[in-house]
Amino acid sequence: MENDIGLWGVPLAILGGAIRVSTPFIFVSLGEAVTERSGRINLGLEGTLVFGAMAAYAIAVETGSPWAGVLAAMVAGAGFGLLHGWICSFPRVNDIAVGIALMLFGIGIAFFFGKPYIQPSAPNLPAIPLGDWSSLPQVRAALNVNVLFLLGAVLAVALWWAFKNTKIGLIVRVVGDSADSARAMGLSPTAVRLFATAFGGALAAIGGAYLSLYYPGSWNERISSGQGLMAVALVIFARWNPLGCFAAAMLFGGAGALGPALQSVGVTQGYYLFYAAPYILTLLIMIATSSPGRQLAGAPGELSITK
Questions:
Q1: Residue at 294 is within a domain
Q2: Could you tell me if residue 306 is inside a domain?
């Protein structure tokens, strides 16, 4: 049987690659969207992502359960978020500076505690073989979808609905738009932002668990490649909309999959340049959204980058 599907392999490989590459972006961007909707920006999610990847891998190795690893990553990410929120609750503390400091702290301690787990092999997270209907290995590989991707899609819809239709969503939005209005309603902006930052950190750490327990499926010191920082640009591009975050994550994932897709069909000249596509896309987004004379549509009023 002929298994070569020619040029059709490019869009198919991009689709499969987009699903694989986008999953960490989905969780980190959704977490940052919740945090920023409360009026706080967390640039420390890169450190949270890396530490979550290490924690998930270490616990999965020790327990033999990848889901125990995911849970450990969530606890660690929530801890980083609580630490970030607590420090930012003090007067005259800049949340951007705190985020950068915690990013370096998270990466550093992940490398320190993660050294014993570079060699051991951890069990992988399960995937659902949605392509079993096809006899072509390329189709089956492209449609072998990890469970966390599906959970991320469900979570994006749930958060979008929650922001519009629930009391908790309304509270987060009010605090993010005007702390004075929130206080007048009897709310504590500090407490709301603390829990929003912790929730965002827990989601970002799930993205790290995906990296170490599924794709690429190992723990090493170069596992993230800046995805935590790129997710901040992604949230701005998505205008703080969870559904937009999911779509933008798929776009970033497709950009990241472009180079390997071209290589898979025999393009050997210059394909490596396409590996830089996500970073170029991030740069273009930041340039397009950083005009000093234009208001960021949908931006929370209390967010420091809008002031």
A1: no
A2: no
Closest CA to 142 of 126, 128, 157: 128
Q: Examine residue 279 and state whether it is found in any structural domain, yes or no.
A: yes
Q: How many domains does the chain have?
A: 1
State the residue range of the domain holding 197.
6-288
Which tens digits make up the pLDDT trace of 117-159? Answer: 998 999 999 999 888 877 777 677 778 899 999 999 999 999 9
Distance between CA atoms of residues 91 and 130, nearest Å: 52
Residue of 262 and 81 predicted with greater confidence: 81
Q: Please give the pLDDT value at position 2.
A: 42
